[in-house]
## 1
Amino acid sequence: MKVVTGATMQLMDKRTIEAFGISGLTLMENAGRRCTEAIMAEFGSVSFRKAVILAGKGNNGGDGYVIARLLMEQGWDVRVFIVAGSDEIAGDAAINLQRLDTEIVTFCPVTETLCQCVTSLANATLVVDALLGTGLKSEVRGVYAEVIDIINVCGKPVFAVDIPSGIDAGSGKVLGKAVRAHMTVTFAAAKLGNVLYPGAELGGRLLVADIGMPAEVVTEAAGFEFVDYDAAQMLLQPRRKQAHKGDCGHTLIIAGSTGKTGAAAMSANSAVRAGAGLVTVAIPASLNAIMEVKTTEAMSLPLPDADAGFLGEAAYDPIMAVAAGKASVAIGPGISRNPSTSVLVQRVVNDLDQPLIIDADGLHALSENREVLLHRKSSVVILTPHPGEMANLAGITTAEVEKDRIGIAGDLSAKYNVILLLKGARTIIATPDGEIAINGSGNPGMASGGMGDVLTGILAALIAQGYAPFAACKLGAFLHGFSADLVAAEKGEIGISAVDVQEWLPYAFKKLSREALPMHF
Ligand SMILES: NC(=O)C1=CN([C@@H]2O[C@H](COP(=O)(O)OP(=O)(O)OC[C@H]3O[C@@H](n4cnc5c(N)ncnc54)[C@H](O)[C@@H]3O)[C@@H](O)[C@H]2O)[C@@H](O)CC1
Ligand SMILES: [K+]
């Protein structure tokens, strides 16, 4: 699904009107009609049908007037409250306002005029939020903020036009105060504010409506890819019926140290569950016995131990030897932050030419010597930081990362010529040539240790199976979250463990597959 900023949507509107001769009035009519259809689909069968429409002074309000007219045509009782004076409404919105019976319209430019609105809401079937859309420019204050409070406490289903009022369409952030909607109908393409948190949560169920914008305007607009179920399904490749393990790739995972053998085991076992043909997990020799127990399908490879259960430079030669011919190499989960381990990671990342996935303590090692990324031999490097690791890599604070996740991920990806997968609620995947994908799966139950190790294993396995790097990251991030969603559907969100997500991966693949189940004769 395509996602754009509010500013891009305004350019798309402009191009549609100027280059294709489709008027703003037509777009507004279509927008209002699509919203009305969605309302009728949801509430058309209720016996008492009263809509209270709260409109702002701009075109979002204009959509609200169209909805008012069309719902009245369907026999609804409609009341429109406009948070502005009558002289403030202009353009297409004014034309649609004139089409309404003046008796149903009340202007509420100041707080004192809001009591009628509150009274009217008491017996409403639903409230339509047409206060502010992509034109929101600043923090919501004054009478707009009070109306948002009224909407949020009224206890009625809330239908948001384009985006919940108060959400910044370019970031999903709440500008001062925002409406909490049950459902949002957005137009032509989703806005970032519809899919990024907290906007995504405040919008409720999202529908993207076709308002007659030419397909080329939508496809050619600068934007982002939202990886939802349909998009992930398109990425999943069927496996050849004659496939053998040699076709499915051999991945090497270099991981683990004393106290963190679980990270190595989860990465290795997740690579198995994500379909790698063969998995070798390279660990410090003193941990081999426990690794043999924690992994069954994966082969463990004991490496020279620097001391009590961590790797140092003595492991460099054996790693280079065993990595030869591997389809992918993952390095970092639980590998420790010992100085000698960090030096080893830096040398290995510098010298290996296999596709690399670098996570966790591996990223810490790179933060201490970022130049390695510029001098490395491998043409495919995927970094999978969480916001704290990203902050270290970029030399900024975690708060700064969270302020502009897409921008920071994009910048670092271009700077180091790597695919940057920035984890979090709505994982961002950035490529050096400027592509950005946003993952749509996952749930708060994933906020627990080990989830990143599972993702590393999934990515290592997908790359080993021959997926192109960007496709592997999009599909891998989706499967990771989708598997957790399947676990949550069964067990609930709280208490989900990373191993649960690992073990549900085959079900996630199965649910995503377009293939019929194999028939056995
Ligand atoms: N041709 C078009 O441009 C179309 C626009 N459409 C609708 O129009 C919306 C965008 O319309 P507009 O650009 O008129 O803007 P909005 O209707 O989103 O904003 C309304 C007005 O609020 C003001 N404003 C900004 N921040 C504010 C704040 N914090 N507090 C109070 N007022 C604030 C702005 O100055 C603007 O005049 C879209 O979200 C969509 O709903 C649709 O009708 C489809 C076609
Ligand atoms: K709105």
Note: The chain has 22 helices and 19 strands.
## 2
Amino acid sequence: MNKRLLFLINPNAGKGEIRAKALDVIDLFVREGYEVTVHTTQRRWEIPDLLRERAGGFDRIVCSGGDGTLNETINGLLACENRPPLGYIPAGTVNDFASSLGIPKTIPEAAAIAVDGAPYACDIGLFGGRAFSYIAAFGAFTDVSYQTPQQVKNWLGRAAYILEGIKRLPGIQPWPMRLVCDGRELAGEFLFGMITNSTSVGGFAVGERIGVSMNDGLLEVVLVRQLQSHAERQRVINALLEGELDPDFVTVTKARRVEVFSDQPRPWTLDGEFGGEVEHVVIEVLPSAIQVLTDPALAAEGGRASAGPDLIRAPKFSGKSTQGYHISAL
Ligand SMILES: Nc1ncnc2c1ncn2[C@@H]1O[C@H](COP(=O)(O)OP(=O)(O)OP(=O)(O)O)[C@@H](O)[C@H]1O
């Protein structure tokens, strides 16, 4: 009997490039011996319901879309007892998850990996029970990804996110928060915070040099403290433009479980989409929860070496600067 593949397509993701290429992709899947079922998404949050009901009947799930589509697919798969391996054809604007996992960005190459790639057991984050594949974030820039106009994203790519974020710096208010990271408490007034499972955020390779792995069973926590003066803001902007994070204002750590307390319900973003407003939430990692198909060489590597949870670092973005990254203690 033929192997069965469910191909989920968000036709509206990114510039809609998949529309012109879907037939070639389906043709490739058929040539590789799959009986293909195609579903084009019709509305938000449709994929999890569909997968809960039907994923068990397939040998492979492939989704095409941006980070939001992938997030919905992962949420659906987590609800299934038997989770088929997941192929991902990135078709969004930035595609952080794909960058982190070494999944090619062109549709034909990604489609080939979706059928011929090797499975990589990827950690998944849980935010109050809802899955995220690469980021849960609060504060200053968290609405950037879903409020930056699509045209600007298409035109500028990742630079759109950082520019939109910098534009807002002068007007933003810090939030009083307390985060308990595997029992260690971090309290203060934070402009921004993110809990990630990714080497790439907003298109910037934040993790490569601090040894982030997507299957080390750990989430990375990045917190940006309140900036008191114009000079401090300028310092942070300059560091960002140099491709760095300033260790005096940015704390980085790792944890399996992060419990967050805030003064009032605050909005969060999950994988670039609005994630709801919460006053208290538990964020934890589900180690090796989803088998994602990726480059066999990367999968064989078993993920990059991971820094221990005790190291607190200001990671260096992959940028122009040649300086090393900084290490500081809490
Ligand atoms: N037919 C549809 N109509 C409206 N929204 C849809 C439809 N199909 C899917 N969606 C929703 O569109 C949202 C955005 O999709 P996605 O994130 O995949 O693309 P994108 O925003 O272009 O990419 P990125 O977030 O990487 O920039 C998803 O949350 C999904 O639920």
Note: Residues 3-116 form a domain with the Rossmann fold fold (CATH 3.40.50.10330).
## 3
Amino acid sequence: MLRRAMMKRTLSSANPAPASKRLRSSAAFNPNKIATVEAAAAIDADPPLHKLLEAVKDGVQTPRTGKSIVYWMRMGDLRISDNRALSLASAHAKERDIPLIVLFLLSPQDYVAHDRGPRRIDFTLRNLASIKGSLAALHIPLHTSTQPNRRAVPHEFVSFLERVNALTFYANIEYEVDELRRDLQVCDAAKSQGISAKFVHDKCVVEPGVVVTGANNKTYAVYTPYQKLWLTKLNADIPHYLEDCPAPHANSESVRDSPELSGLFDSLVPESVPGFELDAADRAKMEEVWPAGETKAQDILKRFISTKSRSCQLAAVDPLAAGAQDSEKRSRIAVYDSERDRADRDTTSRISPYLAAGVLSARACVRATMSGTALATGGKVDGGRTTGIGRWVQEIAWRDFYNCILAGYPRVSMGRPFLEKYANVRWEGPPVEDTAYADSSPPTSPVDLALAEANIEKWKSGHTGFPIVDAAMRCLNEMGWVHNRMRMICAMFLVKDLMIDWRVGEKYFMEKLIDGDLASNNGGWQWSASTGVDPCPYFRIFNPYLQSAKADPTGDFIRHYVPELAAVRGPDLHKPSASIANKLGYPLPIVKHDEARDRAIRRFKEPGTA
Ligand SMILES: Cc1cc2nc3c(=O)[nH]c(=O)nc-3n(C[C@H](O)[C@H](O)[C@H](O)COP(=O)(O)OP(=O)(O)OC[C@H]3O[C@@H](n4cnc5c(N)ncnc54)[C@H](O)[C@@H]3O)c2cc1C
């Protein structure tokens, strides 16, 4: 107990948090994020997704007509086109000849609980504003409202349904535990009011529950067999899995004169959420680098499919900047198999923020890899390992895989390692600021804690003395996104070289990433920490110097983000000597990689040992 109190003091005194951060982690709302072993086992044994699907089946099936149909838009489905719940809601409203209403509830406490960063919230608001305009052209109101108490969201939602006389609502399922539990409460409340709740799958190409092991219908915990079956299922029913859901029909214009509904057109999408504000310069930068709206997302995807990568696009720039060259054979997707790990050009699609926010559907991404003729004539999806397209489709399958893990093994969204055998690995640094240690062994002295804290800060700000780690962390801080290989290098470095609890990194990435998504972020962190599903074996530890030479062969990425080293050429750039570093004012390495590697292997081999 004493040790924990000491840890909190050490952590909070060193670096005062910025104002917005202080607000977000205020004492008033500070949920504990690490479940006990027992609670994690209990939730895995009875996952809430299963309960929700049952509740939907047991709910009201044939409601009275009501005076409107509501689609509840959430943070992960910010689009109008190819949106399953919206499309179904619209068809239902059209059939009954009643108006469709779209609702978005802002819940700042959820954003705190889920480590959402200001950039992700800003991206949400910018996309909502764009959607509001497009829906208004169809006479469909998008009503936004903020609920300060997240426990009150179910009640507020059902009250809204009553206010607009809706007896049926539609929503796409969110697979995170808190959201599923909230939706279970909504189902209960809806049922008691005679309201029909329609929750549908939309986030994945192949939804959780379809690709399961033959033996006992369990969620796969290994990617390769999962991906094989994923592709087989997908190719066996392309019209279903790749359906382009019909766009919503327009409401009758008379809805604008309705005394009950006309006011809904007036609610404004807020410019910001208190505690999550961006300063004006950062907001402008984000607008340039991650422009909002479905058309932009579709254009970014088209660029990836049809144009070559460029070194001028390696950093925080307009993704649709002029000068991209068309090429069928050398387009970014065509050479993705061989080039995807390079960070010194825009080799990957950079579509993740749009997928995470649902500005683009995952189905649309897979459809885009097929020619129109292939789609129309029953052609197959290429998901193989030998082509650029196949490799890229495999990444979309990784995204589905991690969502299935979240749904099938919900423990991972409760701060637990998937592999409990590593719960007692001894970390140098704490799991998550202000939360209990749970069960990982704490460091032994204030000296360890102070060093751990200092190292965490150097890692966050990109001052570790490892050029590739520093470049990647500075890129993340600057643009809210960094290349996948860089994420792996930074994660592995924090966890294995510095021996800092993976949850520290998971939280920091979530706060910084504009594509922050629990399933993929947790999956990526637990993979790097060797605690997750199909993880990197604990003894396979990235050598940051070798990784650097492979991922940044031109050195352009490091030189861009680490200006201290801008004049350095050749191997020194990846591993500067002490004399070069001293001369250029670049930090010396904060850890010796070889020694750190041995320490990590020792601690993972026998969790609990020092
Ligand atoms: C530590 C760590 C944390 C991560 N956190 C997130 C996160 O919060 N949100 C997120 O969307 N991705 C996360 N990823 C996965 C991956 O790094 C990003 O999806 C990818 O870098 C996005 O860039 P892109 O769109 O150019 O990807 P591309 O290479 O073009 O891939 C296309 C799409 O496939 C999906 N994808 C690609 N790689 C992965 C992967 N390894 N796991 C799951 N899906 C993948 C993404 O949706 C991506 O947009 C994380 C990876 C690691 C190692």
Note: The two ends are 20 Å apart (CA to CA).
